[in-house]
From TrEMBL:
Stated family: Belongs to the 4-oxalocrotonate tautomerase family.
Keywords of this entry: Isomerase
Native source organism of the sequence: Kribbella speibonae
Pfam families: Tautomerase
Top-level division of the source organism's lineage: Bacteria
Xref: InterPro entries: 4-OT-like_dom, Tautomerase/MIF_sf
Gene3D superfamilies, per database record: Macrophage Migration Inhibitory Factor
Keyword Isomerase applies: yes
Protein name: 4-oxalocrotonate tautomerase family protein
UniProt GO MF annotations: isomerase activity
Domain 4-oxalocrotonate tautomerase-like: 4-59
């Protein structure tokens, strides 16, 4: 049973639906596992809780 964790900034439900479908399809196509066995967990972090190059992404 593949379990995929996606760490990202907040996205709309529509974008998340598209993402989890494409990730699931990638596992089905590459590993031949049933779609029902693929779990995708999305962990969203607000822009004021992560940084790139020493600057909060909220400050960019």
């Amino acid at each position: 049973m593949p379990i995929v964790t996606v760490l990202q900034g907040p996205r709309t439900p529509e974008l998340k639906r598209d993402l989890v479908q494409k990730v699931t399809d990638a596992f089905v196509d590459s590993l031949g596992v049933p779609a029902e066995s693929v779990q995708v967990w999305i962990q969203e972090t607000p822009p004021d809780s992560w940084s790139v190059g020493g600057t909060l992404t909220a400050d960019k």
